[in-house]
């Protein structure tokens, strides 16, 4: 099992993020994941995931780097391919490029991209990026959304034949696309585990009709997390997580699987969704998840609205020292 973190996102300054990733690496985390939002009602997101991961790559030694997920339809795929290839070089082959459709209309309006084109743009973008990564001679690519002619695909990626490609998203079509156009499906933090379990069953059905092998592909998962040494401390820290969801989904910033009503009661919201408790309780929760569906990479977000930086780092340290060894 690989464990990962989402380092602090959002706020006025980048200061301290790399140090937090260094701490995570020191206590046993193997991966670092970053999201991609251009607009949010909360304070827990930054844009430019490949730029952020480049900084983290320079400050760490072995931490694997994951975009989960980059909203591919918002960007020109040539730009993404070049930036991703450079990051794979800078990090000496530590990149996994996860992409998704996006769902925030405000972001598409700002970038001048019609939302009804997002599926086509994502599919064609992935096809181009894969060709860019694997080509050993100039490439030409034409589709309804962009055209590249006789282009030298530089730099070559360190990973051979290319970095892993993942797709996130919850719809039936998106699950099918994850099998057809990528190496893995990556579930986000918002849905409860019952929905994850249902979607994994659908993914497996698609895998059966593909060239992939269910037992050989990656099975990643993202979850919100709160950990403390005592239950009393857990109850105090969970308020920050609740505030995150009240800020982000209690107003106009909606998600296909989350409504304002669904975030009002924390216990109802957290049930079968969040990972929270003492180290022993969390070990039991993760083991129970592994019994429900395949899981070999778990990325956790410990930072929540208004949480002091030292509490975030305390959680990273406690999880690394007390939980990760149970899965070695």
TrEMBL record:
Q: Which InterPro entries match?
A: Luciferase-like_dom, Luciferase-like_sf, SsuD_RutA_monooxygenase
Q: Name one GO biological process term.
A: alkanesulfonate catabolic process
Q: Pfam families, alphabetically?
A: Bac_luciferase (PF00296)
Luciferase-like domain segment(s): 10-292
Keyword terms, alphabetized: Flavoprotein, FMN, Monooxygenase, Oxidoreductase
Q: Does the keyword Flavoprotein apply?
A: yes
Answer whether the UniProt record assigns the keyword Repeat to this protein: no
Q: Which SUPFAM superfamilies match?
A: Bacterial luciferase-like (SSF51679)
Molecular function (GO) terms listed?
A: alkanesulfonate monooxygenase activity
- The entry's protein name is LLM class flavin-dependent oxidoreductase
Organism, by scientific name, is Natronoglomus mannanivorans
